[in-house]
Structures are given as C-alpha cells and as structure tokens.
C-alpha cells in the first residue's frame, strides 16, 4: 500500500471518527471505537469483519477494492451517525446485511473511497404470535428468523428463502421468495411496517416516511433509498404436518419428458405444493449426463400430497416411501440440505453454510411453455458445457393474483417459472475463472429464445453486472437506467421519482442502484426519448 493511500485512509478515518464524536451529544450515544475498523488502524479485525460475511470468493481477492472504513453499528443511532458523517465527508456508503450478494454490490465499489456499513450486529428478531407479527432487524439471517418463529409456534411461518444465512435486509427489500411463494407470494407481500434511516440521517417508520417510500423499499432494494433498520412482517399459518420429497431422474429414466410435463403442471397445481426442478451435470462412466431432481415442499400430509400427485403428475411416480413428513421448520432444514432432525440451534449459526466458493448466477423468467425439442436442446447444451446447473421455481397460485404494481416486484401473472443459472468452483485460478464465467454466459445466451423478451426479465436480488451499470462516480443517466426495465418494468418510473424525492443527491448508490430523475431527464433530452421517462 502506497504512502498516499495510507494518508488518505487515515485522513478519512480520523475525520469520520471526529464527526461521530461530534454527533454523540445529538444522538445521546457514545460511539465506541471498537465498532469502527480501518485497514491501517486495526488491520486484523478489519480483515476478519470484511471477510466474515462474504459468500462469493470472486469478491475476496487481493485485487478486490476494499472499504476505507467498516462500521458495525450496535444501535440504531450508530447508523444515523454513520450516514450523516459519510454524507458530510462526501464518501460513498454501502450497506451489507448478509453477504449473499452475487456481485458484491453491498461491499465492493468502483469508487476510490467507500465506507461499509455492516449491519450484522443488528439482528434482533421479536415474534408476537398474538398479533401474528415479527419485527426483524435487517442484520438478522433467515435461520434466526425461522428459529424465533419456531420458539413461539409450530403453526406459523414466513415465506422467505431456503438459504439459512441470507440476510433479511437485502432479501426482503429486493422481493424475497421461497417454497411458499405459490401459497403466499413474496416476502415483501407480508411487510406491514419498517424503520429506515434516510439520506438526512432521520429514522422513519411507515407513517413518517409515507406510502411512496414504504412501497419502494418493499422490492425496490432498500439500500437505494436509505438504510433499513427493521421490517415488521405478518406471519402466515402453516400446518403442523408438512411433507417434502426429492426424486432424481436420469435421461434414461425419461428426465426430459418429466421436465417437459412439469413446466405445465407445477404453476397450475394445488397452491399448497411447490416443486422445484434442478438440472445438474453428473459424470457416469466418464461421460457427462444431466440429472433432473424434483424437490418439493407441501403444506399438508403425505396422503393428500399423493392424491394430488397421482391426479396431476403420475408420471413422476411419487410413492409413500419417497415422502417425509416434517414440521415447517424441519422443512427449512431439508431444503438447506441438512438432516431434518438437526438441532434447531444450527439456525442461529451465522456461518453454517460453506462460503469458500467462487460463483456466478444469472436469472430468467419463462412465460411460454418450452417444446419437447427445446428441452432436448437444453439438456444437450448442458452436457456440452459440463459445469452449469439450472434451478427452476414455479410461479402461479398467489403470484398471479397480486397486481404488478402492488410492490416494485412486477413479475407476477403470466410467469410460469423463474430460472436461475448456477455455476460454482473452488479453485483460485484466473484461467479457470474465465472458463467458468464463459460457460454460464454461453448458457445464458443460448437460453435467449426460450425466455421472456422485450425486455428480457430478471430478478432484482440477482443483479447482474454483465448488464449495464452506473458510472463509477454514481452518475445516473438514461442509458444506464434502461437496465432496470428488466427488473421493474413500468414500476421503474415510480421508483426513480421516489428516489429523486427522498435522495436527490444520489447519496445511496452503487453500480446498479436506482438513479435520480435529473440524470434521466438530462440523458433523455439528448436522445429525444422523453416518452420513456
């Protein structure tokens, strides 16, 4: 590290600490230096904190840009102070709640200096079964939420993801989906209140922030508009007995025919049933073949599930011995690839999932059934590539009943299923990095003719830096903004207007953040595209 960089880091660190101390009387909080980390002041602790929630090793290399300062608030007033001081110093601030960030946008920046606000200390979850609600601080992980619900009730749950170490702040503010999506919709469909620190350092709740901002942070990415402190959510009823199963079929066992049939059955079947399909390459006798795994969560007992399957999808051949009856929280273990009898305390382990992997993810939505010959081509392409997996999650049910503009998440009716392209590797080798990245990009390109078009839709929480990005200085323009039509459709316009109203200086920004209207108008004027704003 050069002396100039050290000098800059120290200057920002010292100025930041001084600002925090000056604010202490206003916030009635003494800022403990132990929650502020610098690579030059306390490098060992800094590195530990930085790496502790990184789930994608692509963004944990020597060449990865690092924050000038990390602050790990333990009180909401610490968050206020961090926002005020970062704005005063004109330094970008990024907000991390869990680290399941496929492109590292919550802790990596192209800007010269940036501050990481790591919310992991703010992870309290309070469950009230009488009102059927929970207040969840944004640094909590899904496993912690599920544990606190299980502590209080065996007939309540919450519709969210299957990765237990996902941070609530990012997951919920970007939409949030899981195995109950067809029964109850997205996580954001059950948010009834929130607390947020805005660009002026004010703590706002639903009443004080207003319905526009409250709408925006339920699917438009909370970090675009402020720092989410907590969400208040409505819990949903779940039966005491749930059923799960996992059946894997090879091509020789008619996997292609089964996937072809699944795509028309899964979005229309009983809403208590969610069946994901995973297409994964396996090597058998030195040859790559594709296996299709059907993994399901059913809100009910195995007897009713078997009747539904026999009537709608008998080709899969589900039998009683394939079914495992579990509680709702045990189903979460099952989907996270744990034994369902695993000690519930594992849900509280914030480092329980393997993070020592490199990865890239991409996403699509399918609106029209893919033909049998199309599936044959897809299976063949997966064999040719050799390392890519495909995860397919059915929609329908409650998702098609909710209006596109109810939240910023517009992909509702008309969607048959969501597709996630998935590749992992463990070797830290630039040549292999390029090989794996090329493979999944080739698969994504190959799938163009089978998925949504004009625009090609994508899920906000799986942001993709292969798409257009904002300028390194956070400057917004119309060209960069166009990428958001794929995430938000017509809802993008409303998000831009809200962003402009609550954060006109674009303080909360990253390479794919919601831009402000001024930048869009400027670019639109140059290109004569006012009608698109």
TrEMBL record:
Its cofactor is FAD. Residues 63-238 form the FAD-binding PCMH-type domain. It holds the Pfam family FAD_binding_4. The keyword Disulfide bond applies. The keyword Methyltransferase does not apply. InterPro entries: BBE, FAD-bd_PCMH, FAD-bd_PCMH-like_sf, FAD-bd_PCMH_sub1, FAD-bd_PCMH_sub2, Oxid_FAD_bind_N. Keywords: Disulfide bond, FAD, Flavoprotein, Glycoprotein, Signal. Gene3D superfamilies: 3.30.465.10, 3.40.462.20, Uridine Diphospho-n-acetylenolpyruvylglucosamine Reductase, domain 2. GO terms for molecular function: FAD binding; oxidoreductase activity. It comes from the Eukaryota. PANTHER family: OS08G0158400 PROTEIN. Belongs to the oxygen-dependent FAD-linked oxidoreductase family. This is FAD-binding PCMH-type domain-containing protein. It comes from Tagetes erecta.
């Amino acid at each position: 590290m050069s002396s100039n960089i050290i000098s800059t880091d120290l200057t920002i660190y010292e100025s930041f600490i001084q600002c925090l101390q000056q604010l202490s009387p206003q916030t009635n909080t003494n800022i403990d230096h132990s929650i502020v980390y610098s690579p030059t002041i306390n490098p060992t602790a800094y590195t530990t904190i930085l790496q502790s929630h990184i789930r994608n090793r692509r963004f944990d290399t020597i060449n990865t840009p690092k924050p000038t300062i990390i602050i790990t608030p333990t009180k909401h007033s610490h968050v206020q102070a961090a926002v005020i001081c970062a704005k005063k110093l004109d330094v970008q601030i990024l907000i991390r709640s869990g680290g399941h960030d496929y492109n590292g946008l919550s802790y990596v920046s192209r800007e010269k200096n940036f501050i990481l606000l790591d919310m992991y200390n703010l992870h309290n979850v309070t469950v009230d079964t009488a009102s059927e609600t929970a207040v969840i601080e944004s640094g909590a992980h899904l496993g912690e939420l599920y544990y606190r619900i299980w502590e209080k009730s065996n007939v309540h749950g919450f519709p969210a993801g299957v990765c237990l170490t996902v941070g609530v702040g990012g997951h919920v503010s970007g939409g949030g989906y899981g195995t109950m999506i067809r029964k109850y919709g997205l996580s954001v469909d059950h948010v009834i209140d929130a607390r947020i620190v805005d660009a002026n350092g004010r703590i706002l709740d639903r009443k004080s922030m207003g319905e526009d901002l409250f709408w925006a942070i339920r699917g438009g990415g909370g970090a675009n508009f402020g720092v989410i402190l907590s969400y208040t959510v409505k819990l949903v009823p779940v039966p005491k007995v749930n059923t799960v199963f996992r059946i894997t079929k090879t091509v020789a066992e008619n996997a292609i025919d089964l996937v072809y049939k699944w795509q028309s059955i899964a979005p229309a079947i009983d809403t208590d049933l969610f069946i994901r399909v995973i297409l994964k390459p396996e090597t058998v006798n030195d040859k790559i073949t594709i296996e299709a795994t059907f993994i399901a969560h059913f809100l009910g007992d195995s007897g009713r599930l078997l009747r539904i399957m026999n009537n709608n999808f008998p080709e899969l051949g589900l039998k009683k011995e394939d079914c495992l009856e579990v509680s709702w929280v045990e189903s979460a273990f099952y989907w996270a690839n744990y034994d369902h009898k695993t000690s519930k305390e594992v849900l509280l382990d914030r480092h329980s999932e393997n993070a020592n992997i490199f990865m890239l993810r991409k996403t699509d939505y399918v609106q029209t059934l893919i033909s049998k010959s199309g599936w044959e081509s897809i299976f063949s392409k997966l064999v040719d590539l050799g390392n890519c997996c495909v995860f397919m999650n059915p929609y329908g049910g409650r998702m098609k009943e909710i209006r596109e503009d109810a939240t910023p998440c517009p992909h509702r009716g008309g969607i048959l299923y969501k597709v996630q392209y998935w590749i992992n590797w463990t070797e830290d080798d630039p040549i292999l990095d390029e090989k794996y990245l090329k493979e999944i990009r080739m698969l994504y390109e190959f799938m163009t003719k089978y998925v949504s078009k004009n625009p090609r839709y994508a899920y906000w929480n799986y942001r993709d830096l292969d798409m257009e990005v904002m300028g390194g200085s956070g400057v917004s323009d119309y060209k960069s903004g166009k990428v958001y039509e794929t995430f938000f459709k017509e809802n993008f316009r409303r998000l831009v207007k809200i962003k402009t109203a609550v954060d006109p200086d674009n303080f909360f920004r990253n390479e794919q953040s919601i831009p402000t209207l001024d930048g869009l108008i400027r670019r639109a004027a140059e290109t004569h595209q006012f009608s698109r704003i």
